[in-house]
């Protein structure tokens, strides 16, 4: 698979105006009317999915994923749709007394209350993300899309005055656990690092609102990091400290867990390589098939790192790739829901699959094209679904 360099990213951003022009923001009512099931619409069960498939109930401290078959809304509901992953349980923080410390190589160390944070200019951004461990076995349920509100990280770092040589920004959550590291048990906080250049992107926020509500406990109340276009692990919840340093941050969830081991062509040399889980890889999946009268409709999502898309396509059995329609609401960093009118679906068993193509011509890989991989991260291959039309 081709990789993207920063030059390309800049070009994408310039192109994005033209390519994404058709996906302008519209009111959420319009979005829902296109994706919610109509009165006479019936769900066609997938034969690759148990009919009673259900994820675990949402519990404090537990993992939760959504049943993607029921994705109807562009915005995932906070209460029972947006997935949850928490590695050290769910801390309960007091919004009124919580403080965020900015420390390390800064001229102006800070200790900010939530009131201080809310006084800063508010930025809103639509962003979808998935866990790096999202996969076909759970029908891609570790995913969600929301409208986030918060303050810009870059401006905060500028106010803190990063000193010469401060090249790494470490982010710590308030959740802690014991880890055995080289035979020694030590207490660790959940943490992630961004390089200075990564952290200064202007779309990164410290989010205290999710879909217009205060950030819920499971999603990091009162405040979390949100790095649009990156896998979920980057978005440190229950944020309590931002530390500027001159060495790479190498905590468990940065440098040991959430590392993909795969065999790749590295400039003509085949190597088994370990890579950090960072930007979301180009992916789409079919999530739902419905029938209304004699016509069938296929729905799904795409997710990626924000590179504009050229097309989403659907293939039925051994037929040609056909273009699907991207539904309204899509923004650069949101997931993109798509819909495909399946005309003349014939009775019998069928295999259906989707693929997404970005403006650089990168095509979502088939499972065979994926690099050989030994780790459960980054499952972005094309996902074939099966069903029976009666
Ligand atoms: N403090 C903290 N932040 C965290 C985590 C965590 O365990 N602790 N889990 C990460 C992982 S692995 C994912 S996938 C996302 C999930 O975010 P969500 O629960 O809001 O969907 O949060 C990330 N941020
Ligand atoms: Mo994750």
TrEMBL record:
Cross-referenced Pfam families: Oxidored_molyb
Molecular function, one GO term: molybdopterin cofactor binding
Signal peptide region: none
InterPro entries assigned: Ig_E-set, Mopterin_OxRdtase_euk, OxRdtase_Mopterin-bd_dom, OxRdtase_Mopterin-bd_sf, TAT_signal
SUPFAM superfamilies with a match to the protein in the record: E set domains (SSF81296), Oxidoreductase molybdopterin-binding domain (SSF56524)
Membrane-crossing segments per the record: none
PROSITE patterns membership: TAT (PS51318)
Chain ranges of the Oxidoreductase molybdopterin-binding domain: 88-251
GO biological process: sulfur compound metabolic process
PANTHER family found in the cross-reference section: SULFITE OXIDASE, MITOCHONDRIAL, SULFITE REDUCTASE
Name of the protein this chain belongs to: Oxidoreductase molybdopterin-binding domain-containing protein
Organism: SAR86 cluster bacterium
